[in-house]
Specification:
223 residues, mainly beta
């Protein structure tokens, strides 16, 4: 028997402690007491004494975003209360960052994070401008970060003797200590004939992990 939507057990209870937690598989709750950061357009509900303000990226990151098209359009959440964040019904996951373990993330997969974290827009080594959008955000410091994935992601270990190749449209995040380069998996002749649609991948080498979205954007049909 299915539960009624408005049964008491389905009601959201007030937070018992400040910080970032999973509300359900597709939403996170931030119990704000001071300040938090979130990607613009991801707040779906809030209560309490909160204020939301668009945040600039600084001159350096603004210029990088103008050139690369990648970045984080952020807002600052201040005050005391609760806010819920979600994006396109994507699955949500929490990552704890510390001084010994940062994370490089695709900007479109960032949901919200602690104000104590620092981030910088970085270029994927080996990709250059030909990478077509391989510019990501590297988080450092100490705090919690919420990410999205269109489904339950694959978390693949990378070791010195077992590098991993991932689709450039599907990669969500990876350990910042990994070495990256572009890998072409088909010949020029195959590409001329139409190819497999998976011509170039991101190769990750070293020691760490890479997170891969189980779904990738479909190409826009040409007119």
């Amino acid at each position: 028997m299915q539960r009624n939507l408005f049964d008491p057990e389905n009601l959201v209870r007030p937070a018992t402690a400040p910080g970032l937690t999973l509300e359900n598989a597709m939403a996170v709750r931030y119990a704000v007491k001071g300040e938090a950061r979130a990607r613009q357009g991801t707040m779906v509900a809030w209560r309490g004494a909160l204020e939301f303000e668009r945040q600039g990226q600084g001159v350096g990151n603004f210029l990088k975003r103008a050139v690369t098209g990648e970045g984080l359009a952020l807002m600052t959440v201040t005050g005391e209360g609760e806010a819920w964040f979600a994006a396109d019904a994507a699955h949500c996951f929490l990552v704890d960052i510390d001084e010994n373990r940062g994370l490089t993330v695709n900007g479109k997969n960032v949901l919200c994070f602690d104000a104590s974290l620092k981030y910088d827009i970085t270029t994927v080594k080996g990709a250059g401008m030909a990478g077509g959008g391989l510019f990501n955000c590297t988080f450092s410091g100490t705090g919690r970060l919420a990410l999205t994935s269109a489904g339950i992601p694959l978390v693949l270990p990378v070791t010195p003797d077992a590098p991993v190749h991932v689709d450039t449209d599907a990669v969500v995040a990876w350990s910042p200590g990994l070495q990256t380069s572009l890998h072409r998996s088909q010949s020029v002749g195959s590409m001329v004939k139409g190819g497999s649609g998976e011509a170039v991948q991101l190769k990750l080498e070293g020691e760490g992990v890479v997170v891969v979205n189980p779904n990738e954007p479909k190409p826009t049909p040409s007119a």
